[in-house]
Amino acid sequence: MRVRIAVIGAGSMGMNHLRVLKDFDEEQVQLVGVAETHEPRLKRAVSRFHVAGYADYHRMVEETQPDLVAVVVPTCLHFEITSYLLDRGINVLVEKPITDTIEEALALIQLARIHETKLAVGHVERFNPAVIEVKRRLVADELGRMFHLLARRIGPFPPRIRDVGVTLDLATHDIDIMRYLADAEVEHVYAETQHRVHNTYEDLLLGVLRFSNHAIGILDVNWLTPTKVRELSITGEKGMYLVNYLTQEVYFYENDYTPTTWDTLRTFTGVSEGTMTRLKVQKAEPLQLEYEDVITAIVDDRLPTVSGEDGLAVLRVVQQLVGSAQRGERDKQQPSVAVEV
């Protein structure tokens, strides 16, 4: 079966989608159109990828009859466009975050069920080969009990961002990955945020997540750092994995703890520095792997790996983090009360 795919949005991320789709075997994927309201971007996409261009996505859908549409537009437009597509029985890959609100996300999930269509959410780090390798080892119990996850996703302020803060735009990646690797849901959160560059939304987040398996996740995310870092560490009984998302490298730092019978040291034992090993990872394009997964879900009639429900779960955590930070700010603004002793 050849899957007919269209893309809505030809900004920087939309161009990545078009590039990856053009690399697929034409017997597997037919790129049928791109829709973009900004004329210069549309012309650039049409010229570079030799694909039919449309200023109106409604017209593109009517004329091209796609099996799958990638929605790669600002978050505020996700619900409007995705609901239109699902209503017409078209499968959708919507970029993360799924929507702005819980209510909209629930509505999209319900629409996908009613029309028996696939709704995938573009948490692309789930398809990073480094993450896939770590997940394989966790499933094989090579780390033992998980204690702690620490994500650092920091870098300069991106001019393209106007409609969301750093929590919804960036931290969503790591929230999804932590849920995936911990195989657990978030039970409690605490957050501190700051506004330093962005006029409307937060551009720095420090967050704490407590998972149902008692692991603790730490989020260090900002748009204020003059160098780009994308790292995740996972610490457990047998050591620590360190993931570099950008280079797709994984290092394992072994806990070389050996029980001792020497009473003097017994109370200090439990963790000891062991061998550091760079693990073998077969590098690949995560966005291509994401498309392969969604295409297979359509052909085999199964759920995509990152479903609408996954997108909803991440959005719930984002709102809890933002709410925690806002409550903290309100508490700080409350006048102190003098108490007589």
Question: Characteristics of this structure?
Answer:
six-stranded parallel sheet, disordered C terminus, 341 residues, alpha/beta, single chain, Rossmann fold, 2 domains, Dihydrodipicolinate Reductase, domain 2, eight-stranded mixed sheet
The strand order across the widest sheet is 8-9-10-7-11-12-13-14
Instruction: Name the overall outline.
Output: globular
The SSE order reads: EHEHEHEHEHEHEHEEEEEEHEHH
In angstroms, what is the radius of gyration? Answer: 22 Å
CATH superfamily of the largest domain: Dihydrodipicolinate Reductase, domain 2
Please describe the biggest sheet, giving its number of strands, its sense, and whether it closes into a barrel.
Answer: 8 strands, mixed
Into which percentage range does the β-strand content fall? 25-35%
What's the pLDDT, averaged over the residues? 92
CATH topology of the largest domain: Dihydrodipicolinate Reductase, domain 2
Q: Could you say which structural class the secondary elements and strand pairing correspond to? A: alpha/beta
Helix percent band:
25-40%
Q: In CATH, what is the class of the largest domain?
A: Alpha Beta
Q: In total, how many domains does the architecture comprise? A: 2
Provide a descriptive summary of the structure in words.
The protein has two domains: 3-125 and 288-307, Rossmann fold (3-Layer(aba) Sandwich); 126-285 and 319-324, Dihydrodipicolinate Reductase, domain 2 (2-Layer Sandwich), CATH 3.30.360.10. Strand 1, helix 1 and strand 2 (29-35) form a beta-alpha-beta unit. The protein is globular. 37% of the residues lie in helices and 26% in strands. The chain starts with a strand and ends in an 8-residue tail after the last helix. Strands 8-9-10-7-11-12-13-14 form an eight-stranded mixed β-sheet. The protein has ten helices and 14 strands. It is an alpha/beta fold and 341 residues long.
